[in-house]
Structure formats: structure tokens, C-alpha cells
Design goal:
Blueprint: H1 2-9, E1 16-23, H2 26-34, E2 39-41, E3 50-55, H3 63-72, E4 76-78
Antiparallel strand pairs: 1-3, 1-4, 2-3
Helix pairs in contact: 2-3
Length: about 80
């Protein structure tokens, strides 16, 4: 995730953030994401399950890690749904 964010943002010194949407068990997902190496903050889900996850840029987190954490928490992570 960090490599992708680096490529998208170019040079800069701001945090690496990714907006995710999820379904099911937001509190368990928050704990599962927080336990991943490379996640600085799992964010808090809003009423639609959207959260802003902040990453540590010196670590490496794969999207599969996020999906796995979601699965273990009984939640599904996916790209934002269109209205």
C-alpha cells in the first residue's frame, strides 16, 4: 500500500492514507487493522462503513493484509461503492 501511495502522491511529506469501505463488525475490524504492521491508524468507520486508514511510510502493508484482517474480523473490505 505504501508503494502505491508513494507513486500516486509523488514527492511529499504528508501521511499515507487510504479510504476504505467495509461491511460488518466495525469495532472488530478497527482492532484487526490496528494490529497490522504498517498501519498507523485504522480510522473509525462512519455510518456507511467508510474509514480513512493511515499507514506508516517506512513499513510495507499489502492490500491482501487488509483483506485478511477484515476476514478474520468477520468484515469485508472493498472499494467505495458508487451512489
Amino acid at each position: 500500500m505504501q508503494d502505491l501511495i508513494r507513486a500516486v502522491r509523488g514527492a511529499g511529506s504528508y501521511d499515507a492514507r487510504l479510504m476504505l469501505q467495509s461491511e460488518g463488525f466495525p469495532d472488530k475490524l478497527t482492532d484487526a487493522l490496528a494490529s497490522l504492521k504498517g498501519v498507523r491508524s485504522p480510522g473509525q468507520a462512519d455510518g456507511k462503513g467508510v474509514r480513512l486508514v493511515t499507514f506508516v511510510m517506512d513499513e510495507r502493508t499489502m492490500y491482501a493484509d487488509l483483506e485478511s484482517a477484515g476476514s478474520q474480523a468477520g468484515a469485508k473490505i472493498f472499494a467505495l461503492k458508487k451512489k
